[in-house]
Amino acid sequence: MEKTKPLYADLMAKYIFGTEENLIYIAHLLELFFKLKPGTLANATIRNSVHLSRETINKKGFEMNIIVETPASEVINIEFYSKYNNNNLNAEERDSLNEKAVQINFVKNNLMPNTGKVTYDYIVINKNNLQAIDPDIIRLFIVDLDQEINQDYNNDELMRWIKLIGAETDEEMQEIVKGNAMMEEVYEKMKEFSQEEWVNDYFNKERLVKSEHNSELREQKEKMIENMLKDNISLENISKYTNMPLNAIKDIKKKIEAQK
To answer: Per-residue pLDDT tens for 185-228?
Structure first.
């Protein structure tokens, strides 16, 4: 039996929060996020809802982001990242500037400066004139899934959902959802979805691509270190600038000397 895929993983998030059949979950999460009266977003729609399948995710133009339109015609663009360090808006975020919009990024392995907060918002700057964009036009929120959440999250349902979104293991998920009917239902759907063959094929492919990418980055860093050594930059400074341990740099130096 396959372990349950985490809710912050893009495909799982798209299934639970970005399909019309599961609208109730994203509506409830957003009501908690913005402190709205329950039922306020009951008639919201998901603009880019699709029936997920192997064929769907392989189609050109398939979108992992989730675009919710509220009954008040406000647009909320939601994305889930397993790594995030981008200070620039992506294509969907830039397009949303054409209408009043809110951008929410749920981030695991956040590489941006640590604020010590779980949820925080940004001022969006126009790079052409360095002017702040009116927050009435676009608001950008980051939800840092790596931040420690007090174990007394049972009294704060939003924090409980955020804890579930960031959970890695079935044991964590089971403990978090216990006693909350909607969250228990979500976890059951997550477990079932995780057993689909095409879903596992997708995640295996993603892991392979990430592994190959990381291998390529390591090779690029080693090449850069080789060039720095050839320029007689000290080992200490190389370690400082590249975050590579001294022992690893010494190994690269030995390899260069052995090739002479």
So the answer is: 999 999 999 999 999 888 887 655 555 545 666 777 888 888 88
Query: Which residues lie below 8 Å from residue 72, measured CB to CB, with a gap of 6+?
Result: none
What 3-state class would DSSP assign to 110?
Answer: strand
What angle do the packed helices 23-33 and 157-166 form, to 10 degrees?
A: 120
- 188 and 240 in a single domain? The answer is no
Residues 6 or more apart whose CB falls under 8 angstroms from that of 16 comprise 7, 22, 25, 186, 189, 190, 193
Residues 164 and 242 in one domain: no
Share of the chain above pLDDT 70, in %: 75
Note down the domain range covering 221. Answer: 210-259
Report the predicted TM-score, pTM, of the whole model to 2 decimal places.
Answer: 0.70
Is the same domain home to 98 and 55?
yes
| Tally of domains within the chain | 2
The answer as to whether 121 is a domain residue is yes
